[in-house]
Design a protein that fits this description.
Order of helices and strands: EEEEEEEHHHHEE
CATH topology of the largest domain: Jelly Rolls
Structural class: mainly beta
Largest sheet: 4 strands, antiparallel
Number of strands: 9
Strand order of the largest sheet: 1-7-2-5
Distance between the termini: 25 Å
Radius of gyration: 20 Å
CATH superfamily of the largest domain: q2cbj1_9rhob like domain
CATH architecture of the largest domain: Sandwich
């Protein structure tokens, strides 16, 4: 399962300059071979994205470029889309926010997903602690990392282990939803 790395709102206000072109993949790993794409991005348009309002600019095909290639003077195109639309792109695509020459802000919601075995940019367990995560659906809990990834990734050690319990537990225990050996786990929090 892929997990969100970070979720954020992004506003480009009138007269804001363009963001420099970049690849988001630099945030998590330059050491993975190029054929492994660890990151997938979603940019949701909460207002209309127009060239004038600073729509996200993308460079189609740039995921295949040599990583040492300079991004100076590279041509990009605006991802124009009405409010409610979504732009989907990999972390290897060169992109950046455009300059806002309109009289209104351009607002988007960015959600980035990583392979489940990579450390997230935002620590979801601190942003959404177990007492809040318990109130969410199991699907959302999984996206936040309250599940084991790839069979054994994501265990934790509670600060005060319970007597007779192992010192490493699956994250579902923090939510009170895990069963181990037929016995309901004691909440360590």
């Amino acid at each position: 399962m892929n997990a969100p790395s970070v979720a954020s709102l992004r506003a480009c206000h009138p007269a804001e300059k363009a963001q420099g072109l970049h690849r988001d993949r630099y945030l998590c790993s330059r050491s993975l071979p190029p054929e492994i794409e660890p990151m997938f991005n979603c940019m949701w348009a909460l207002t209309d994205f127009t060239e004038a309002s600073g729509a996200t600019r993308v460079v189609p095909g740039s995921q295949a470029w040599d990583w040492a290639r300079s991004l100076e003077g590279v041509d990009s195109i605006p991802a124009e889309m009405p409010a409610g639309s979504v732009l989907l792109y990999s972390g290897s695509i060169v992109h950046g926010g455009g300059a806002n020459r309109a009289g209104v802000p351009r607002v988007g919601m960015s959600i980035t997903y990583l392979l489940s075995w990579l450390r997230q940019e935002e620590n979801q367990h601190l942003s959404c602690p177990p007492e809040v995560a318990r109130t969410l659906s199991s699907e959302i809990q999984g996206l936040l990392g309250y599940t084991i990834g790839n069979g054994s990734l994501g265990y934790f050690s509670p600060s005060r282990p319970a007597q007779g319990h192992p010192d490493t537990l699956p994250p579902e225990v923090a939510l009170g939803t895990s069963r181990r050996g037929g016995i309901e786990e004691q909440k360590p929090f």
